[in-house]
Design brief:
- The structure is a single chain.
- By secondary structure, the chain is α/β, with parallel strands linked by helices.
- The chain has two domains: about 5-255, Rossmann fold (3-Layer(aba) Sandwich), CATH 3.40.50; about 260-315, no CATH class.
- Helix content is about 45%, strand content about 10%.
- The protein is built from 13 helices and seven strands.
- The protein has helices at about 5-10, 10-25, 25-35, 55-70, 100, 125-135, 170-175, 195-210, 230-245, 250-275, 280-290, 295-305, 310-315, and strands at about 45-50, 75-80, 105-110, 140, 160-165, 185-190, 220.
- It has a seven-stranded parallel sheet, sandwiched between helices.
- The relative contact order is 0.11.
C-alpha cells in the first residue's frame, strides 16, 4: 500500500496505518507527515474533556452526527488508558459509536495513553496532523478523564469543551484544580438529574471571577443521551471559533501549540538518542556515583547529556 498516496486520497485504511506507524515511532510516519505538513491547518480541532463518567463519548457522538448532517468530514480520536499487556487502548470508545463507525464520512480511532500524562497520548499530535492531511473538517479529541492532570488538551485543541455532570462532586474538585481555566465551552451533561441547575449556577459563578480573558465561556445544560440541547452546544463551539478568528487569538493559540510541540519533540529526540546509543552502562555508573554521594544527580544528568551525539541521531531529509 502506498500510504502517502492513499492518505491524500482520503483512504481510511491509509490513515489508520499511518497512525499505527506514528504510535510505534516508525520513521516512515515522520517522513510522510513532514512531506505533507504544508497541507495541515485546515481542520478544526475540538477537545472533549472532563471527569470520568461525565458522558464524553456520548457528547462526542452526538456532536459528530450533527456535523455529518452538515456534510462535514469528521474524525474522532478517543484517548484511552493503555493496556499493560498489549500497549493498546483498553476502553475502545469505538464500541460506543457503532453507528458512526459505518459512516464513510467519519473516522474513529482509539489510542492508548502509553504512559503519557495530561490525558493525551504521546502520538496524539501526529494523529491530528495525519487526520488533517486526510481531509477532516473537524477532529474531535476525547481525553481519558484523569482529573487535574488533564491539561495538555489546551495545547492541541482550538476549542476545549469541558463536560461536567451533576452528582459526582467533580465540579468543586475541578474548580480547586484550576480546570476552570481549561474550558472554552462548559457542558453540564445528564441535566435531567437532580442538581444539574445548581452545577450550572456554580460554574457560572466561577466564570464570573475569571477576568483573564475578554471571552466568557458559555455553560450549556444538555442531555446527550436524548440529544437535548446538543445543537446549542455546537452553536457555542462555533461562537468560540468566531471569537478566535476575529480577535486574532487563533494565531497566538497556534503559536503556543507549536512551541510546546517543538519542545516536546526535542525531549523525545534526546531520550531516543540515549536509547539508541545504549548508554545504559553510563547511566548505571552515574546511579552508583550518586548513591555513594560521589556525584549529585544534576551533574550526573549533564554528564550523560554531554556524552550523547544528539544531532547525528536525528534524521533530517532535505
Amino acid at each position: 500500500m502506498d500510504i502517502k498516496a492513499g492518505l491524500l486520497k482520503g483512504d481510511k485504511r491509509a490513515a489508520a496505518r499511518l497512525i499505527t506507524l506514528a504510535e510505534n515511532g516508525d520513521e516512515e510516519a515522520v517522513r510522510i507527515i513532514r512531506e505533507c505538513y504544508h497541507l495541515t491547518g485546515k481542520a478544526r480541532i475540538i477537545g472533549i474533556t472532563g471527569p470520568p463518567g461525565a458522558g464524553k463519548s456520548t457528547v462526542t457522538d452526538r456532536l459528530a452526527k450533527l456535523l455529518r448532517m452538515q456534510d462535514k468530514k469528521v474524525s474522532i480520536i478517543a484517548v484511552d488508558p493503555t493496556s499493560p499487556f498489549t500497549g493498546g487502548a483498553i476502553l475502545g470508545d469505538r464500541v460506543r459509536m457503532n453507528d458512526l463507525s459505518t459512516d464513510p464520512g467519519v473516522f474513529i480511532r482509539s489510542m492508548g495513553t502509553r504512559g503519557a500524562l495530561g490525558g493525551l497520548s504521546k502520538a496524539a499530535h501526529d494523529a491530528v496532523r495525519i487526520l488533517d492531511i486526510f481531509g477532516s473538517d473537524y477532529i474531535f479529541i476525547e481525553t481519558v478523564g484523569v482529573g487535574q492532570s488533564e491539561v495538555d488538551i489546551v495545547k492541541l485543541a482550538d476549542t476545549v469543551v469541558m463536560v461536567m455532570v451533576p452528582g459526582l462532586g467533580d465540579d468543586i474538585q475541578a474548580i480547586k484544580a484550576g480546570i476552570m481555566e481549561i474550558g472554552d465551552v462548559f457542558s453540564v451533561n445528564k441535566s435531567d438529574r437532580e442538581g444539574a441547575e445548581r452545577t450550572a449556577v456554580e460554574l457560572e459563578m466561577m466564570l464570573d471571577f475569571n477576568k483573564s480573558s475578554d471571552f466568557r465561556p458559555e455553560v450549556i445544560n444538555i442531555v446527550a443521551r436524548d440529544n437535548q440541547n446538543v445543537d446549542k452546544l455546537l452553536e457555542a463551539i462555533e461562537k468560540h471559533w468566531e471569537y478566535l478568528c476575529t480577535k486574532s487569538n487563533y494565531q497566538d493559540r497556534k503559536r503556543n501549540s507549536i512551541h510546546t510541540e517543538i519542545i516536546s519533540l526535542i525531549n523525545q529526540y534526546i531520550i531516543t538518542s540515549i536509547q539508541k546509543n545504549n548508554h545504559s552502562n553510563l547511566i548505571q555508573s552515574m546511579v552508583e556515583k550518586v548513591l555513594k554521594k560521589e556525584l549529585d544527580p544534576y551533574s550526573a544528568a549533564i554528564e550523560i547529556l554531554q556524552s550523547v551525539p544528539i544531532i547525528t541521531t536525528v534524521q533530517h531529509d532535505n
